[in-house]
Amino acid sequence: MAVAHARVSRNDAGIALAVPLLKQRFGERCDTGQAMREQHGHTTTWLTTEAPDAVVFVESADEVKAIVDICREHLVPIVGFGVGTSLEGHVNAPAGGISVDFSRMNRVLEVYEEDLACKVEPGVTRKMLNEYLRDRGLFFPIDPGADATLGGMAATRASGTNAVRYGTMRDNVISLEAVLANGEIIRTASRARKSSAGYDITRLLVGSEGTLGLITSVTLKLSGIPEAISAAVCPFPTVEAACNATILTIQSGIPVARIELLDEMQIRAVNAYSKLELPERPTLFLEFHGSEAGVHEQSEAVAAIAEELGGGPFAFSTRPEDRSRLWQARHDAYWAALALRPGCAGISTDVCVPISRLAECVEETRADLAELGILAPIVGHVGDGNFHTLVLLDNDDAGEREKAATFIARLSERAVRMEGTCTGEHGIGQGKMKYLRAELGGTVDVMKAIKTALDPDGIMNPGKIFY
Amino acid sequence: MAVAHARVSRNDAGIALAVPLLKQRFGERCDTGQAMREQHGHTTTWLTTEAPDAVVFVESADEVKAIVDICREHLVPIVGFGVGTSLEGHVNAPAGGISVDFSRMNRVLEVYEEDLACKVEPGVTRKMLNEYLRDRGLFFPIDPGADATLGGMAATRASGTNAVRYGTMRDNVISLEAVLANGEIIRTASRARKSSAGYDITRLLVGSEGTLGLITSVTLKLSGIPEAISAAVCPFPTVEAACNATILTIQSGIPVARIELLDEMQIRAVNAYSKLELPERPTLFLEFHGSEAGVHEQSEAVAAIAEELGGGPFAFSTRPEDRSRLWQARHDAYWAALALRPGCAGISTDVCVPISRLAECVEETRADLAELGILAPIVGHVGDGNFHTLVLLDNDDAGEREKAATFIARLSERAVRMEGTCTGEHGIGQGKMKYLRAELGGTVDVMKAIKTALDPDGIMNPGKIFY
Fold it and tell me: Transit peptide: is it a keyword of this entry (chains A, B) (predicted)?
């Protein structure tokens, strides 16, 4: 499939000057080996790998600043790298340049227990953080499935299965430290829970995909581990019925922690991959957080809604092992789906629509898949109106690639027509640049004006978000 | 008190050209009468009134665009006006220019019941909206006390008593339509509940105080009216005990809808003004939202915490009339406080600190008030770490003005030292410009770069936020 690259061109002369300077400054922590470079331009998706010219393993904000200063002087691109779980080519280096690897900046700097907050270096992953926090009765709720770094999650405005209750990275970042293109190290906000002190630069950097600055610390909201957690599974006769049950649940104000749709094809994949025996029907996976009484009240309310819509049986469990098995299966949905067609490639789509349009959007999308003859199971964070299809294709078959491109373009157009977005949580990166203007029109020019103001030389992750 | 104005200068020649053009375009809806102009440059605070040269009553985004186009051509300032409840001089026109009055843009454009959302014109006030929504079982939770317009609340990132549970305007605006300085009308986001589609321009405009654009419609999240609402009042032996009870409540994850502190002086004022008979001690006013069982569970949990900290008696009520009386008294706290010293002026401060520092910050502030001999009752949205002192002063007494200025500067410095902010919800406006850099350092330069990029001629509300 043709990759929608921004028109960025390579500055060979600058790169030839900058790399030796970085070698001198960072020694073995500046790696120009081919395997390392390719791994840092590799994405778990259909986009072509575009390797940087060097990978630098940083250990502090001052080191990041040193790289930025060298790269600015020689007009060399800088691409941030967490663990590389991006699906939209965020870590690619279309014009070459330096990949800044944050894996050594992996310390939890502070836990502010009384404030339900913490400050971490950007290379801390969400699982590392939750492991660190467990004994204190606190957790960080955002869960995109992959064990992504918190810097990367902030940079791409990640969310995932818990967002319906706990929000996205937008809602859970209190403050950031970042190195800007001009080499300044800024702190975007105080630690106060709310503030009206000028423009919201925190929210501007969250989701900016490394194009405005490199995040060097993240101050996050935490939540108390709930007194009780329970899980439930409920099959439905149709995808529409499952979507409608979701809509009613949200409208009723039931504070579900997770409400995930898997269509019948995805259930078949999960059964095979995770050794489950779920009925092969569209199914909701749910999780409830609260007091013992609260989780029972919530699950009874959802069970009643499900029954009203022809769903059931509603299987409820408070046993941690049942819950872990269920959510592990949900997290493995991507791998389970790939196993439906051995050797295939997978392209994950990511539209999000107002929940009132969800059933309609999913149904139209399924009809389109059937018409095009594409194999693509569906999973969705349906409480937010967000769902993914995983298009399974033979990437060497031009006809299949063409069909997939047609499908994805139609899906984006459909989401925008239904007042939604082409990306609920994966970001624009390289993969969705061509859909952004259809969605937001002149707002894209505002973004570009800000980009030009803060990074006039275009050194921060060029070729991402907009042309 | 000296007013910390930005260095903005008046363009008499441009104003002399623009006003007749606006008169021609808008007829009687362009008002240059002195009373109307002064009312539009009037703030309910200590700042000097600075009237615009004309007030235009707009009826559509296209009309706003027409004003912006004329003002840009003649380099004339444009100041948005909702109902004028700002406390920090946001509606002042230090370099003259045009006040754009949104009171005629007061239609609820859409209610998306299934999506728990609505779209309104900027001149709709929160009470108008809630009146409109009541029969549908929905409400808009943000409540800053004053019946402000939703455009103004978005522009200043307002919050208030419900923010501890429902968030601030930052969290409750889904999308905005706005007219930029270049005359473009943009829509900042889709209606999807979450999105990773590029920079968060919605959040950039929320809190930008009219300095980047004029908001012409607001798409908002709504909430279902809770099944049960109850209120409670609980006195404490000390302010510290009340703060500590608040901290424990938040840490325990109890989803209180409101938790407000009134110190003993404020209780005395409220008793006199609202004819209540509360014990004259530091007191928490609380509200609980949820199911019948849920609100009882919540209030019992808070009552237990209060008792542990020496508070009580904990008076709980589910009667709507008790609740209304209590919250009306809370909302009238400003007027009640002013009545403590007839004829005085009032300056409301607005710091917000991490909740772990709240008791310490309030105590140091009270000691400072005592040392300076300033009369200033305290009310606070303590669940967020946000509190206000209302400095009661004779504005004609230079010594009192001087003392008040000393107090406010020390308070801002104290909040910043405790990792908090000089403004939790009132905004920077004119009044707090001098404190912003101490709080955010080089982040202010990022704001200025964005301002210059989007409003190169500086016509959008000049003299606000930064110098």
Answer: yes
